[in-house]
Amino acid sequence: MNRWQKNLKTCVTAPDELSPLFNLDTEDIAQVAKRYPMRITRYYLGLIERPGDAIWRQCIPDPLEFEDQAQMEDPLDEELLSPVPGLIHRYPDRVVWLVSSVCAVYCRFCMRKRRVGCTEATETGTRQAVLAYIANHPEIRDVILSGGDPFLLEDDVLEEILSGLRQIHHVEIIRIGTRTTVTLPERITTGLCRMLKKFHPIYVNTHFNHPKEITAASARACARLADAGIPLGNQTVLLKGINDDPQVMKRLMQLLLKIRVKPYYLHQMDLVRGTAHFRTSIDRGLQIMEGLRGHTSGLASPYYAIDLEGGKGKVPLLPEYVRRDDDSLLIRSYRGEVVRYRDVEKS
């Protein structure tokens, strides 16, 4: 058994384990955990400085999760867009394959909160059905492995999945979404990276939400992946009281670049039941994007996007920088002044 597997066995899953660590009554937390399970690695728990801080709020159950019953469990219609179990086919040329049903840490804002703690597995029969579907749809060129967390699969299981995909000639790229770089960095072993190199082009998207999540350990994990020739992107969720501050977000994006991770998406919170207390306004997100543009490297500016209900897909949310005035454009700079730009097309 590898070290990361041993460490997974020591995860905190019972709320009463928190009592001696933080000197608090966990009765309310326990009630929430009965409905929405709790799982926290010892590593990620160690990043908490005090109850209620940015790390605490992301992983500790909160009674506020019960106060949001108006939203749907599956607002993105993933279940309806699943032609075979475990596969989501929303866009014409790409699919999401849910290869794992577990994560190292159960995030309280999870877009698949309805599935957290489920015991579904990626049995060989299910895998073969997914591979057959992809093989029979030549328009699919991009496969995204998600879950749960694909990196919680053992290396040989993940290798079997990647090998199966690489035998389908029209699959051009494979992307893997993982939060283990944040919550279980020891999972990124030299053996895993050596195996992944065999299946290039492989892309990995990480999920850092706060500067405190970028540690020496997480930086080493990302370095191993980058040194294996794997481009790294990051998808951050905009979370109220955690990273909805221009300075916090700017520092997060700067630190990501420092560890060779390109900021990719800043996600507006999905309208998932049990997550309303994390939701900011779109105006707040646009203000944060304005706080990035021109105030730090363009490399540090992600796309701000919303995933529309009903499976209608991601749409970029852009500040209204531009308006037309006769034959010119009036463009507002990051300093606030309006610049006239002649919009002339040369023949």
TrEMBL record:
Matches recorded under SUPFAM superfamilies: Radical SAM enzymes
Keyword annotations of the record: 4Fe-4S, Elongation factor, Iron, Iron-sulfur, Isomerase, Metal-binding, Protein biosynthesis, Pyridoxal phosphate, S-adenosyl-L-methionine
Protein name stated in the entry: Translation elongation factor P-lysyl-lysine 2,3-aminomutase
The UniProt record lists the keyword S-adenosyl-L-methionine: yes
Superkingdom: Bacteria
Binding site for [4Fe-4S] cluster: 103, 107, 110
Essential cofactor(s): [4Fe-4S] cluster; pyridoxal 5'-phosphate
UniProt xrefs under CDD domains: Radical_SAM (cd01335)
Record domain Radical SAM core: where: 89-307
Sites of N6-(pyridoxal phosphate)lysine modification: 314
Family that this chain belongs to: Belongs to the radical SAM superfamily. KamA family.
